[in-house]
Amino acid sequence: MLYYNADIVTMNADRHIIADGAILVKDNRIADIGKTKALKEKYPEEETYDFGGKLVIPGLIDTHVHLAQSLLRGCADDKELIQWLCQRVWVLQGCFEEDDGYVAAKLCIAEMLKSGTTTFLEAMCADRYNFSRIATAVEESGIRACLGKIVMDIGTYTDAAFAMHPGLIETREQSLLGTLAMHEKWHGKANDRIHVWFGSRTPGGVSVELFKEMTQISQEKDIRITMHCAEVEADKKYFREEFDMSPMEFCDHVGLLSDKTVLVHMVWIEEKDIKMLASSGTHVSHNPTSNCKLASGIAKVPMMLEHKVNVSMGCDGSPCNNDYDMIREMKLAAILHKAVSLDPTVMPAEQVLEMATLNGAKALGLEKEIGSLEVGKKADFVAVDLNKLHTTPSYNPVSTLVYAATGGDVDTVVVDGKIVVQKGELLTINEEEIRVQAKEHADALYKRAGIVNKPIWPVV
Amino acid sequence: MLYYNADIVTMNADRHIIADGAILVKDNRIADIGKTKALKEKYPEEETYDFGGKLVIPGLIDTHVHLAQSLLRGCADDKELIQWLCQRVWVLQGCFEEDDGYVAAKLCIAEMLKSGTTTFLEAMCADRYNFSRIATAVEESGIRACLGKIVMDIGTYTDAAFAMHPGLIETREQSLLGTLAMHEKWHGKANDRIHVWFGSRTPGGVSVELFKEMTQISQEKDIRITMHCAEVEADKKYFREEFDMSPMEFCDHVGLLSDKTVLVHMVWIEEKDIKMLASSGTHVSHNPTSNCKLASGIAKVPMMLEHKVNVSMGCDGSPCNNDYDMIREMKLAAILHKAVSLDPTVMPAEQVLEMATLNGAKALGLEKEIGSLEVGKKADFVAVDLNKLHTTPSYNPVSTLVYAATGGDVDTVVVDGKIVVQKGELLTINEEEIRVQAKEHADALYKRAGIVNKPIWPVV
């Protein structure tokens, strides 16, 4: 298929933007890329797809997603963390049954695809959500995913108040053997669209012994790891009080600092920690909306970038965002750090788009496959319609995308060479059906958990 | 017309949400409001409009808009303030000719209406933009507007580096007589949809004498004032160095502290200033996106709200936002202050919606007319479609609106009893036509100003 008539932000080494460009896709890869006129002449027999002058970018890469939490959207807005986590999020997640995990995954993936995300990293698939059914949702929907299988062996967090819901507790054996089993079953499946990772719980939910076992297996078997880290101040205190270490000293101690690890949030770290990230090649997933909404704080992203840490981006879950729209997330990443540093030149639109594409690919170990539009890479790309009121006029499409557009402006999405969204319509998931199912599953879930979620204001 | 089958967030004194509610509109006012069933029985002959189960809220009120800047969208992203303002924004604005102002206003109003804003306060209409043509754009489009006529008599800002573009400089006479003339001509016109205000330049652009004349006229003739204030640290320094006063001491000195004044941004103020705002009834317009993107800083909004200052919200202009979407603006207002205060309970969704409706109405002196959906008030309301992937499930419509929706989810907009947006389509402005015109006018404007706005990355 020859996709043509688009302004293409290639993200290649020279960062070329091809005006009136075209992309030739053979099977699931980019076979050629260049000007429309040249490619049309070169491939006169090829079937064509007219992008109608839209902007084309590499598929967005969300490096921190909680699929299951899509059913929990708005479950605990404006609440203290302990209420948010222990009385709502964990309780609801601990009551997942049967196909709740599958339906949640479908809802979340549908939202991601429609807003331009073509690859994501799931943080922690609990056994309760049914890993294989979630992998099936990925397979069916056409998205590309790295799925972290949960790793934990302790049921409490930093203190007793943060006790894990019993429905979510797993053992060392479930963690390690479960990951290996799912890796065996799913890694590389769906034409290599599915990868299986360790989805480690935060320190406090994992013993030092288990961390060391996991990081050793990670290196031996090339199974990558993602973990929440230094999200709230209590995390930093925990490392200091329990181990007399800084967050990254602890991660180093248990073997987590590695280019096979993506650490998420990373709000409560200092320059010394940042240097350890840089020298070890450890990746970071920055989640600005989540960090703001949960009042975790503001990560020192400009400092990380200065130290050449690979910082990617994530939307987190819908109780803490409450959407999975990477375009909206890019805007916040671009403007938030300007306010904090009082410098309007930090984190320009171009750098933020790199974080959401190239840096994401690198974090997932997929920089040779995705993250830019170049010959030989997998055909993951997104057409965004900038011919809207709120994106007019537009002279720099990158800054228009980051500062003015939303996921609602996405028109076409191609993953692994297949069109999954066309003219804003999902082709692989029945949108209306999944919305209705999700509502039914969420209703049943709240009932089972004994939680009532209702408006603050009186309903008459 | 009987609008029915909606969940109505009334914003009345009890904050009632009417499930399956209906609104009866007679002429331009709300004649009745209640349950669909009851109102259908009570008014069986009435023409009906089915909201299809959508969420209905009072029309959003944007208390800080630069209409003209819609043509300047993305004109200086990621640049230092002095480059942003003096080499781009002022230069382009200083080169407005003929109907540039009218076209910009139409583009901006179209975007606002489609994203649920029914009333706005224009900060500073320069003579160069042609006040009457802008008022005509308001009249034709059906939106409700308070239009500030620019007031200035000094061509430089806090220091010589911030010299105003000659094309924008106006005199004392233009300022005062111009406002009075426009007030005479337009105030109360279009069925009272148009109000005329003083749109004062920042201290530094206005002499103490002119400030005093303006504030005296404001009180005598009941002409309201809006002004940028304490936006950047240099503003605060200016008041201290030139007058040995805090920002609010200066405003008090020249008569600006009054319930007829809306001060915009208000980032660089202290608790003492905030107490002066509260005791004088002076209103504040909070513009979080603009403050972040321009690296102005983060306003102490939770402290202002604690002190009972009336804080409303604004999107500012498209060089510093880059959109005019109040729903997106609400989300940032709700999450930003949580991150800064490390408290997830500050600025809950409900409070932010109050800021964008009731507080906005109060800031404009229109609290008896708009801001809530109650019998006797003007019929300004917006239906938002929450039956989308990214808003499913939804248990508290207010938090879903603020945290998950965008202006792109707006379905129907009614202003002054007239439907101006229906199923997402503008009825009063030809969207495609204004988009094309805006692009042409922007292209010509850049050419005239000798400014090239192009992508940072190489276009091939």
TrEMBL record, chains A, B:
Record CDD domains: ATZ_TRZ_like
Domain Amidohydrolase-related, first and last residues per copy: 55-420
GO molecular function, one term: metal ion binding
Alphabetized Pfam families for the sequence: Amidohydro_1
Entry keyword set: Hydrolase, Metal-binding, Zinc
Signal peptide bounds: none
Protein name listed in UniProt: Amidohydrolase-related domain-containing protein
Phylogenetic lineage: Eukaryota, Fungi, Fungi incertae sedis, Mucoromycota, Mucoromycotina
